[in-house]
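Before the break, one more example. Copy the sequence into your notebook; we will annotate it together after we see the structure.
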Amino acid sequence: LITDAEIAKIKAKGITVVPTLTITDGIVRFEEKKEFLETEAARELFEEPARKHLHYIASTWTNGKPERYDEAFGYWRANREALARAYENTRRMQAAGIPMCAGTDTGAVCAFAGELVDEIRRLHHIGMSNLQAIQSATLNAAKLVGRENELGVVEPGKRSDVIMIEGNPLDDLTALRKIRYVGRAGFWYQPNRPEIADRWLGHSVTFTP
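Here is what the structure looks like once it is written out:
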């Protein structure tokens, strides 16, 4: 667990933390994504050889055999205790007022495209308000990379991609999954599905020890 002294140093240096709970959660609980990898949505997301390989990895995640990917994930693989500490560390840093931004490590074996909404929900789970969690992926993310003068909010003179969703995410963050239209570069697009497919079928997005 992170110490109070370490939290104080992070805060004193003005560091913004990107906890990427999504990839941590994926490494620890990847076997719980096997059901998603059997769906039509997964077949749309991945080329078939990749989907089959990911399904194989998820199917063998907790068997303890020295699979080829074992060394790459080492200590974190299927380690629920480590995940509990990661959540607690993130919770304590957020409570101390350390700025945080949403990140997923999308592209890694255990984090799939479309999971940013889940990361926003995880940050809410550790103590952020709905608005703070949304801003961690928008306004505050733009500030982190020094581009808040052009990105991060919808207002005249700034560059914005826009999503139209069903529901109010300030009341319920799952509304962010229900995207009806996407506005980008002067064009509107309509998704093929009524909502982002659940990557954790039958399992909770957020981890409770």
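Strands lie at 162-165, 179-184, 187-189. The chain has nine helices and three strands. Try to locate both features in your own notes.
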